[in-house]
Write a sequence for this structure.
């Protein structure tokens, strides 16, 4: 471990980190009277919740508002499903989204990231979210799906409407949720229509891209319906875009905050994969995952009634002193690093290898291109609403080339 005595997260995340610590110190599992839900905070209990889909369901469809434009989304959105429906869809999609398909993206990701950094030109000040962290994952997903380059801007626009605001996910109040969903419904409708056309095109003109593979995927004579594919594509956008933006921004921010760790990485670039794991542990983009109890359950000595909402707090679990030495140190030499940032169990992140690859490529390029990288002005750093995602929205950098 390096001599890193700082125990806080960077800038605006301090309060959040304090909140996770204080909550966990009050007990591993506790009922939040105000929000009317159970907070699960220690590593062992969070892993236990995520490993038991029979007791802790991911399906909130009974509680969710019925906005017709989101119905299609729901059909292929297997992150919100339980077995056996989850297994059927995940297996089908796995046929199309293979490790080989992901590995094959490497040269394109490298080319796109290079192109984006080239566009920075010789400026010595730029916003790394605007320039790289935001556009890279959306372009990668669009390419993965075989979306024509000319339509990329559409995808970027939709993503900005869907994830740009602070509304979605910021409140559990049903009226707020309905209002937030209504505001984005026209975008969802337009996107569904576009993706449906795209799928139909690939049915008529099969190729080798992910969309054609999704159309062809078959298990026991069962294929994905068009609606399920639309839902999966939407899931890719939700799960694969802003999370990767968050990871990239959080990595740059953390390395700025911890210069000893950044120096170690510059001296030993082979450490990059471990650095990425520590950033993932330190600032998990999705800080918590929701589940619903299907029956009365016992957890860490508490009894949770059936039909309770349970929030499995990944961020708190990632700093559980029972699992991690010096959990509040950002330590890029940490090994092993059993963080729960990609979830655990049957819903373990499907895109983890892709996210890790994008982060490796983008961060390596940044380090190669710039001999010095510093946050230009801390006052200008803007974070997203952390109730939605732990991520920066603006991160102005000052750079030097050697
Ligand atoms: C699931 C995090 C990137 C696709 C999940 C889950 C987490 C997560 C925590 C589990 C959700 C649950 O159990 O309820 C992240 C983080 C990412 C990232 C932190 C980036 C740093 C990606 C990417 C893709 C992706 C790049 C695809 C392109 C998915 C899918 C699921 C999922 C499809 C659902 C898996 C299932 O339900 O079986 N992700 N993700 N994710 N992720 Fe990711």
């Amino acid at each position: 471990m390096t001599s890193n005595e700082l125990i806080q997260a960077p800038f605006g995340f301090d309060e959040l980190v304090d909140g996770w610590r204080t909550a966990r110190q009050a007990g591993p599992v506790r009922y939040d009277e105000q929000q009317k839900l159970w907070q699960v905070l220690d590593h062992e209990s969070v892993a236990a919740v995520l490993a038991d889909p029979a007791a802790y369901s991911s399906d909130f469809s009974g509680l969710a508002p019925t906005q017709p434009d989101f119905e299609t989304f729901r059909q292929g959105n297997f992150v919100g499903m339980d077995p056996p429906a989850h297994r059927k869809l995940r297996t089908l999609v796995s046929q199309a989204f293979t490790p080989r398909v992901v590995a094959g993206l490497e040269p394109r990701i490298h080319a796109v990231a290079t192109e984006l950094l080239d566009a920075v030109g010789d400026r010595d000040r730029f916003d790394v979210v605007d320039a790289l962290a935001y556009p890279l994952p959306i372009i990668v997903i669009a390419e993965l799906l075989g979306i024509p380059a000319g339509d990329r801007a559409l995808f970027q626009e939709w993503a900005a409407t869907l994830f740009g605001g602070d509304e979605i996910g910021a409140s559990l109040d049903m009226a707020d949720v309905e209002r937030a969903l209504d505001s984005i419904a026209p975008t969802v409708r337009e996107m569904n229509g576009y993706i449906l056309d795209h799928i139909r095109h690939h049915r008529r003109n099969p190729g080798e891209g992910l969309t054609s593979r999704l159309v062809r995927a078959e298990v026991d004579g069962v294929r994905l319906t068009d609606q399920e594919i639309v839902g999966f594509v939407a899931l890719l956008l939700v799960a694969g875009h802003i999370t990767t933006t968050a990871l990239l921004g959080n990595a740059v921010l953390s390395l700025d905050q911890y210069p000893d760790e950044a120096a170690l990485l510059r001296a030993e670039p082979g450490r990059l994969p471990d650095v990425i794991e520590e950033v993932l542990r330190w600032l998990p983009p999705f800080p918590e995952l929701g589940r619903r109890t299907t029956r009365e359950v016992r957890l860490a000595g508490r009894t949770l009634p059936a039909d309770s909402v349970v929030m499995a707090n990944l961020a708190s679990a990632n700093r559980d002193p029972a699992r991690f030495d010096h959990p509040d140190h950002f330590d890029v030499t940490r090994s092993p690093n059993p963080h729960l940032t990609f979830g655990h169990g049957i819903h373990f992140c499907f895109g983890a290898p892709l996210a890790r690859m994008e982060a490796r490529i983008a961060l390596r390029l940044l380090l190669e291109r710039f001999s010095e990288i510093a946050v230009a002005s801390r006052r200008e750093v803007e974070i997203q609403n952390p109730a939605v995602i732990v991520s920066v929205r603006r991160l102005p950098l000052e750079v030097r080339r050697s």
Notes: The pocket of protoporphyrin IX containing FE is lined by residues 58, 78-79, 90, 141, 235-236, 239-240, 243-244, 247, 285-286, 289, 341-343, 347, 349-351, 354-355 (CB under 6 Å). The first helix runs from residue 14 to 25. Residues 1-8 have pLDDT under 50 and may be disordered.
